[in-house]
Design a protein that fits this description.
heterodimer, A: alpha+beta, Ubiquitin-like (UB roll), Fumarate Reductase Iron-sulfur Protein, Chain B, domain 2, 2 domains, B: mainly alpha, 9 helices
Chain lengths: 257, 230
């Protein structure tokens, strides 16, 4: 298979970048998209050129590192797949492919196709957790949870934090990511004690990071490699509104000493 | 910071304000449209409708004030959110391939600007009779509409604005329940049957007036205002 790749090259955060064109020959349909990139980097290295920097780790669709905007689609044309799960049989001989990094102010450029997604970590740190007392392990079925609730919570928990939702959103909004975390924990009994505080803090952090707002175009759920539904955004909105009305900051004096 | 200020400052809070003011707008639009359709009943019906709205002037001004505040809040929140959205992606993609975005969603911001301009024009035109309103007579809406929309350019602008309103409602009335977090969970969240019906009804109901005026559906009628000797 012959392909023409247009890849974003940028040597660092503060330098100007541009699309470079690379003709490719001998690409096999069975290669994954990242193997095709490995092949290109081998070629560049042998030619004495700087290989293309791209993030990757598990190469089995669960780590959320391999982020590429492929011809305008986050993670490329396959539904429910990350870039590493995308295979070259998705393309045909003679195709032109544009590969760009995620574009968002909240995801600053590192190099070439690598961006810094620490903003997501800070949203999680703001409230994406449940506090539990340590000690002896509790029985797994001690708290009964309905099957429907578990299913919906688990669907939201499938989020791998790759940032495709932000990349695909016309507003660079992180609503699907934040909504998934708030839904995942907010549906379960273990998530109830911190539910209000979590919704307020995570949404506030999302805004502070400089992500845009949600206009419900639905692009995020199409791009999401875990096919998370925009229903999670609806749940986030409700949790946020309820929390905004009823949550009262704890008094400073409590717990001293 | 008070909790209200904190709410308004958040992207979700602003979206809530847009949703609630949007519902106010949709209810107004439906009422306005049903009143408009009295045009097909004649000059007397329109005159009585005008008097009905003026049953209590303080109430009418309260409704007008509420609507103006709703429009301004809706536009202000939309403007501020658009600014944030533009700032959130300083560098655009060289290649984009939107998968499910609708034409309505893509044009909703400029459509909103068009609607705002139309609202100002429409009040000057049909309420105050100051712009492009030959022979305007207060409390004679039938003849004001008939004559005001006889100009094809004016009627064309009305139809354009009605089209923008239809697109606005196609996206907005579906999105509003999701923004407010009260939509039911569904395996097909992008389906929007109710919004399609609502948007189509509003477009047909409103467009019937300027198109009817151009087609000559509203014959000359003596002004009921003159007959009553106001």
């Amino acid at each position: 298979m012959r392909l023409t790749l247009h890849v974003w090259r940028q040597s660092g955060p503060n330098t100007a970048g541009k699309l470079e064109t690379y003709p490719m020959d001998g690409v096999e349909a069975d290669m994954s998209f990242l193997e095709m990139f490995d092949m290109l980097n081998d070629k560049l290295t042998l030619e004495g050129k700087e290989p293309i920097a791209f993030a990757h780790d598990c190469r089995e669709g669960i780590c959320g590192s391999c982020n590429m905007m492929i011809s305008g689609q986050a993670h490329g044309p396959w539904k429910g797949a990350t870039t590493c799960q995308l295979h070259m049989r998705a393309f045909k001989d003679g195709d032109e492919i544009w590969v760009e990094p995620w574009r968002a102010k909240a995801f600053p450029m590192v190099k070439d196709l690598v961006v810094d997604r620490s903003a997501f970590d800070r949203i999680i740190q703001a409230g994406g957790y449940v506090s539990v007392n340590t000690g002896g392990a509790r029985d797994a079925n001690e708290i009964l949870i309905g099957k429907e609730v578990v299913d919906e919570s688990m669907d939201a928990a499938a989020c791998i934090g790759c940032g495709a939702c932000v990349a695909a959103c016309p507003n660079a909004s992180a609503s699907l990511f934040t909504g998934a975390k708030i839904t995942h924990l907010g549906l379960l009994p273990q998530g109830q004690p911190e539910r209000d505080r979590r919704a307020l803090a995570m949404v506030e952090q999302m805004d502070i990071e400089g992500f845009g707002h949600c206009t419900l175009t639905g692009e995020c759920q199409e791009a999401c490699p875990k096919e998370i539904s925009i229903d999670v955004i609806k749940r986030m909105n409700r949790d946020y509104a309820v929390a905004a009305v009823r949550y009262v900051e704890p008094k400073e004096t409590a717990g001293a000493g | 910071m008070s909790y209200l200020a904190r709410f308004w400052d958040s992207t979700i809070g602003k979206k809530f304000v847009m949703a609630i003011t949007g519902i106010v707008g949709v209810l107004f639009v439906l009422g306005h449209m049903s009143g408009n359709l009295l045009m097909f009943k004649g000059a007397e019906a329109m005159h009585e409708y005008a008097l009905l709205l003026r049953t209590s002037m303080p109430l009418l001004w309260a409704a007008r004030g509420g609507l103006i505040v709703a429009v301004l809040l809706h536009a202000l929140a939309a403007y501020q959110l658009t600014q944030r959205s533009n700032a959130a992606r300083p560098q655009q993609y060289a290649k984009t391939a939107p998968q499910v975005t609708t034409f309505a969603a893509k044009t909703i911001r400029w459509g909103g600007v068009l609607l705002l301009a139309f609202i100002v024009f429409h009040i000057l035109h049909m309420t105050l009779g100051q712009v492009a309103a030959p022979g305007f007579v207060h409390l004679d809406p039938y003849n004001n509409v008939r004559q005001g929309l006889a100009n094809p350019l004016v009627a064309g602008f009305y139809v354009l604005a009605i089209g923008a309103l239809g697109l606005h409602l196609y996206h907005g009335t579906w999105a509003v329940f999701r923004t407010l977090g009260i939509a039911r969970p569904t395996p097909t969240p992008l389906k929007r049957r109710l919004s399609v019906v609502l948007a189509a009804a509003v477009v047909l109901g409103f467009a019937a007036i300027p198109i009817g005026a151009l087609a000559g559906a509203f014959p000359d009628a003596p002004s009921p205002v003159m007959a009553e000797g106001h």
